[in-house]
């Protein structure tokens, strides 16, 4: 019988933690490396902030060094490179896809939107949206389509 009060306390504290987490909706920390001349990168940062990311904005002349360090191949490369919770995020990846990735917590997987397609967050060109893929990749350069976005043309 001695165990019962402990169990009740334990389950109560679990409930409390859950409520607290839901209320706080804690911002997700992300570090973004971008070149000083990149204006679309700045717009992507705004997109992240609007989606409850806490952005650390690192302006560097050598974004390529970050890409080399984190296995971003030329086929995957875009403008900015970001790190969130150990995952590499390359280019104009929509915030909701980053959130989806973080929910599943896969090991050694990053996301990339190669190039700079029109209509991605930060690359709004009027209403024009290119078709594009968000690609997942690992450090061995295995790639998969994580999510496909269709064109509106
Ligand atoms: Cu860009």
Short description:
The chain has four helices and seven strands. The protein has 153 residues and is of the alpha/beta class.
What would your notes on this structure say?
With 153 residues, the protein is an alpha/beta fold. It has a single domain (28-149), classed as Glutaredoxin (3-Layer(aba) Sandwich). Helix content is 33%, strand content 26%. It is built from 4 helices and 7 strands. The termini are far apart. It binds copper (II) ion. Copper (II) ion is lined by residues 38, 40-41, 79, 92, 116, 122. Pfam families: DUF411. Keywords: Signal. This is CopG protein. Residues 1-21 form the signal peptide.
Summary tags:
7 strands; Thioredoxin-like_sf; alpha/beta; CopG protein; binds copper (II) ion; seven-stranded mixed β-sheet; signal; Glutaredoxin; 153 residues; DUF411; 26% strand
Task: Describe the secondary structure blueprint for this structure.
Elements (H helix, E strand, L loop, with lengths): L2 H22 L3 E7 L4 H12 L2 E7 L3 H7 L11 E4 L2 E5 L3 H10 L5 E4 L18 E6 L5 E7 L4
Parallel strand pairs: 1-2, 4-5
Antiparallel strand pairs: 1-3, 3-4, 5-6, 6-7
Bound molecules: copper (II) ion.
Protein name: CopG protein
Keywords: Signal
InterPro entries: DUF411, Thioredoxin-like_sf
């Amino acid at each position: 019988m001695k165990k019962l009060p402990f169990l009740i306390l334990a389950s109560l504290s679990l409930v409390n933690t859950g409520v607290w987490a839901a209320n706080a909706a804690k911002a997700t920390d992300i570090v973004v490396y971008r070149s000083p001349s990149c204006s679309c990168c700045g717009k992507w940062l705004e997109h992240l902030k609007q989606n409850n990311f806490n952005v650390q904005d690192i302006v560097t002349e050598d974004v390529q060094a970050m890409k080399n360090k984190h296995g971003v191949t030329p086929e995957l490369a875009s403008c900015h490179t970001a790190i969130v919770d150990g995952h590499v995020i390359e280019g104009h990846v929509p915030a909701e896809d980053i959130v989806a990735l973080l929910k599943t917590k896969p090991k050694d997987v990053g996301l990339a939107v190669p190039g700079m397609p029109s209509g991605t967050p930060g690359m709004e060109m009027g209403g024009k949206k290119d078709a594009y893929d968000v690609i997942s990749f690992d450090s061995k350069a295995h790639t998969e389509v994580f999510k496909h976005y269709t064109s509106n043309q």
